[in-house]
Amino acid sequence: MTIEHDALGIPQDALRRLASMRPGQPTAMFTSDLSVNEFLLVREAGFRPLGLVFGSSIYHVGFQAGRWSQNQELGTLSGAMYHARELAMTRMEAEADVLGADGVVAVRLEIEFKEFGSDLAEFTAVGTAVKADTATAPDGFGWKPNTGKPFTSDLSGQDFWTLLQAGYAPLGMVMGTCVYHIAHQRFGQMFSNIGQNVEIPQFTEALYDARELAMSRMQAEGEALQAEGIVGVNLLSLPHRWGGHTTEFFAVGTAVRPLRADHSIPTPQLMLPLADR
């Protein structure tokens, strides 16, 4: 039996299920992976959960030759890791669109290498699609960023609530990646370091450079969204299966903007959730 997909690769069965969950449909019932506390805080922030949305891409990660005696980015692998995540995110956003969502909160972006192929990895994005109540935003404010897609955020339900109380809105998850090969030490270098406390400059420079490339690419995505800043940034080192001298540095966070030009951040006491006051 052949499973039909739309142009973005979303199964038709998924599209029919999501269409039946749209507000106003007789069978509408939301699903969510938010905890009970997170669900209540998202509701208190003025958003209604619509449904759990998902995007997936199983990607063949290729091989790249290089001069292993020097520090260098492996551009082919960097491109593969970025494109695979982008496919998963795009499909998750498309599912949120089917639900008529304004955004997706508590997004998890994960990777898993498969046993049925050593070079095959599944990239997944999953989160809860939400719709803003009519009176949640200032007059004339649109929740969707300049891309026209629903906003995305990897903030927890509580952090999402706090962000809104502080007068900021999420624009989208932004990310940067860099797969980097760290040159091997020559035998003479290794021998001379035995028994000494000493910095290894080529290792320091390689890791510093790789992190900086990942961070600068994440910031460039934030600039493209016209963000004021990026919150909740995680900078991860992911070894995957490329060996001890090749690693991926991955930077991800939520780009934000103010709800209004003249906003001010409330005092900490006023920003406590109802349950903590």
UniProtKB/TrEMBL annotation:
It comes from the Bacteria. InterPro entries: UPF0145_dom_sf, UPF0145_YbjQ-like. It holds the Pfam family YbjQ_1. Belongs to the UPF0145 family. This is Uncharacterized conserved protein YbjQ, UPF0145 family. It comes from Nakamurella panacisegetis.
